[in-house]
């Protein structure tokens, strides 16, 4: 028997980590230290992939500016991380629903409950991107780099003319893609549990991609999330704090101008600093692509 032929190829996250051999007989404190030290690899892996991350962001910015959407697609933990990141875009940046969105194998149920076989469903992967067009960008998320649902969705998206990228901790390569972000996190502390270092690194990259994209699209000003949606008391207080910090006005005035602006923090800042109406502020922001910096300067 040829051992090389019979050997199953494993993703780097599936290999055994020598540091984990005796975890079950170590003290709790020692286990915590080992896992924490391993997490440093996730940070370093993201840093090493910074050039490809930046290229993916530039693609996403172009797509959104041209009227398209950035769509995450994944299965299991990878899919849930995509859903988590996409769901934060409206309250944080007032981004209309759908511009950054997520598809998870198995549908909504899979967000909280494992759906057996969903990751392997090629046809479901193709069907999940039925509404993708050549204006859009797909970002496949797969820790191993081999999830059939994700690969089939990316291939289908490519036939529709979409930009197609993959974010992975595996060593697979697909020449039909426009780019790949490979995170070399190494073996997990529990072999195959990609919700650990692979999940941490993936979450970091998604944070960087979505946040930087929003910054480039003008939904940020001098360190503040000026497009925050004041949909509850906490976020209303945050919006008022942002207005007072940027304009120098008092809390009472900030609260009043936020109300007059229709609950739009960025518009309220412009109204106060330029002493203009809500309609005038809205027109200026429309003419500057939503950039508060350009509107003020």
Main β-sheet description:
5 strands, parallel
Question: What is the H-and-E element order?
Answer: HHHEHHEHEHEEHHHHHH
- Tell me the overall shape: globular
The percent range for strand residues is 5-15%
Query: Overall mean pLDDT score?
Result: 92
Please mark out the parts with pLDDT under 50 across 5 or more consecutive residues, or reply none: 1-8
Q: Please identify the structural class as seen in this structure.
A: alpha/beta
Strand order of the largest sheet: 2-1-3-4-5
- Report, as a whole number of angstroms, the end-to-end distance: 73 Å
Give the number of DSSP strands. 5
Range of helix content: 40-55%
Q: What would you report as the Rg, rounded to the nearest angstrom? A: 22 Å
Report on this structure.
49% of the residues lie in helices and 9% in strands. The chain contains 13 helices and five strands. It has helices at residues 3-6, 28-48, 50-65, 76-87, 89-93, 122-128, 148-159, 197-216, 233-247, 251-260, 265-274, 278-287, 292-296; strands spanning 70-74, 100-104, 137-142, 163-168, 179-182. Strands 2-1-3-4-5 form a five-stranded parallel beta sheet, sandwiched between helices. Helix 7 (148-159) links the parallel strand 3 and strand 4. Helix 2 (28-48) packs across helix 8 (197-216) and helix 6 crosses helix 7 (148-159).
